[in-house]
Amino acid sequence: MKRVVVVDHDVDVFDDRQVNWAIATRCQPDRDITIITNTRGSDLDPSAREDGYTAKWGVDATAKPSLAAYTPRHRVPPAVWQRLDLKDFLP
Prior knowledge:
alpha+beta; 24% strand; 3 strands; elongated; three-stranded mixed beta sheet
């Protein structure tokens, strides 16, 4: 495994959009990304060095206490979407 992204329970790990949302809104790169160099990798990794060693990285995309005010997701309620006809907003 070359990359790990840690998210909270409110993020569906099988939905790339949600994981990317968590990274974009809950991760500060200088604080929340860890890189580990010179680790044994897979022989199948074409980017690894000839000796098989590579770097691995992890992302902490969990909500920090300072983000409490920003973590709620604001969504348009389904009932509103049903009333809208997007053709009315397109040229």
